[in-house]
Amino acid sequence: MLSALEGGGTWYPREKIRSARKKLQGYNPAHVMLIDLRNGHERSQEFPVLKSILIGDKKINKRAQVTKNKSSQVTNYSFT
């Protein structure tokens, strides 16, 4: 992710538009949100807990049981 100085402060809106585009293309919103979370908080000690809350547990959470559309592209955490 670009820092605010490298992108002239325009990196954040571009990332948000990219995220919205992926959601509109049918990507699992939880995985798109995970990418956003990773971009801003991956180094925080809370990240693993937040990630587990966001993705869920397939045994007990419906959102973790939903069929993932285009998930193979999203799990690489790349928007190419």
Strand content: under 5%
Mind summarizing the main beta sheet? none
- Uncertain ranges: 1-5, 71-80
Overall form: flat
Number of structural domains: 1
Task: Describe the structure in your own words.
The chain has five helices and no strands. The chain has one domain. It is flat, with a radius of gyration of 14 Å. The chain has 80 residues and is mainly alpha-helical. Helix 1 (11-24) runs antiparallel to helix 2 (29-41) and helix 2 (29-41) packs antiparallel against helix 3.
Which secondary structure elements does this structure contain, and how are they paired or packed?
Blueprint: H1 11-24, H2 29-41, H3 47-55, H4 62-65, H5 71-74
Helix pairs in contact: 1-2, 2-3
